[in-house]
Amino acid sequence: MLGGFQVLDTIILLFFFILLMVLVTKYAWGPVMDMMKKREDHIRNEIEEAERNRAQAEQASKEAEERLRNSKLEAQQIIDDAKTQGQKQEQDIIQAAKEEAERIKQQAQEEIRNEKEKALQQLQDQVASLSVLIAGKLLEKEISAQDQDRLIAEYIKEVGEER
Amino acid sequence: MNETSAPIIEGLFGIPWLSVNLANVLMIIVTFIVVLVLSILGARNLQMKPTGVQVVMEMILDFVKGIINDTMDWKTGRLFLPLAITLFLFILVGNTLGVITTIIVNDQVWWTSPTADPVITLTLSTTIILLSHYYGLKLRGTKHYFKSYITPVWYLFPIKLVEEFANTLTLGLRLFGNIFAGGVLLTLLVQLTKSGILGFIGGAVPFIVWQGFSIFIGAIQAFIFTMLSMVYISHKVSDH
What we know:
The complex is a heterodimer.
Chain A: H1 7-139, H2 145-162
Helix pairs in contact in A: 1-2
Chain B: E1 8-9, E2 20-21, H1 22-42, H2 53-71, H3 74-77, H4 81-100, E3 103-105, E4 108-111, H5 118-140, H6 142-147, H7 157-193, H8 197-237
Antiparallel strand pairs in B: 1-2, 3-4
């Protein structure tokens, strides 16, 4: 068993060993290594994506918080505005009512004045015709229109002075 | 105990120095086929989520990667991954084949570990050492290669020269010795079991124990051979 050195054994061993190396590398360990590399890459990508997602989530949560705070502030602002506006409106309404009342009062006074004047005017007219009538009846005498007008004027003057 | 011999044919094709051990040829081809078939079967149906055989394949790959990473950095080491993994599997399967059984026909050993023959192991170790020189020259440059023989001091040159041959011999003969001795002991135990009832009882139990131990030795030797191969290569291709 230990005898001699077989040259052909060496050649055959080297041939099969190199052939085996080429074949298993190409058909077995190459693919296994590729798969392991692929998995490594996949895991790295997944981790990166998870980190990115977490950062995004944090960002989103921060934004949501910010928005919530803004909304609260805005709501408070709206309430305050509404209150202010309400108070202003109240003031306005009261003011308008006062003004309206004042206006109505003035109008009424104006009307009263007008009415009074009108009544006075009517009274004057009536008094004039009445006095003419009375004078005519009393005098039983026709007077000229010129005299009549003069008489009326005098009478009115008298009435006006008396008043 | 009958003397066994190897089926050696001398003077093949009329050439006086060309001889061949047919048992070795047979076992080389058997080992080749077993490693090839197991590897390709294991690499079938690869998936992103590894299951079953794929896990074992990846464990072996990581194991051999670990051997290389222990001796050199991965940048140069990846070059030797196919060599290391083929060496490891070839020697592991070769060692195991002889432990499983030994077939002797007409007092000629036909089926045994291919690694139980010094021609095989020395061929492997010589190839490794020659490869280490080749890659040392290729990757580190001629100047660095020759300088490594006289570092740290010039008078270490003879020792360095002897080291190369010593490495070749020890690397090959360590593997041969371990596997051959394991085979011899198994053969002796088989002889003992054939000697009678008492012999069978006395031989069977140690035989099974020694077979288990031989598988362990075979795995360890495959690991050591691959490890030392990578160490010798790294001495040539690395800085230190």
